[in-house]
Predict the 3D structure of the following.
Amino acid sequence: MEDSERRTVFVIGHISSSARRFLKQHRDESTRARFSEALEIITTSPLHYQQRIKPIKGRYKNEFRYRFGGIRIHYRVDYQTGVIDLLNIDDRGDITY
């Protein structure tokens, strides 16, 4: 197997209630498709994907944000267990870290 095929795939462990609420409110097909694509990217490459993923600065260790359009996904990565927790999903102006 080549090195490019040996990627560590993380799993989504927990989705917060605020993230679930956001997903429930945004059921349109285009947002769902973009969100599915974002989750695929986050689970295969949670630390770096072009300019879309940035670490959260300050007291938040191992927490990142992924942006697509006007939406931000705030998540935490546990490297030892390979689990990603979705902490919040919201519009750009409404999300706080």
Notes: Strands lie at 11-15, 53-55, 63-68, 71-78, 83-91. Confidence is low (pLDDT under 50) at residues 1-6. The helical segments are 17-25, 29-44.
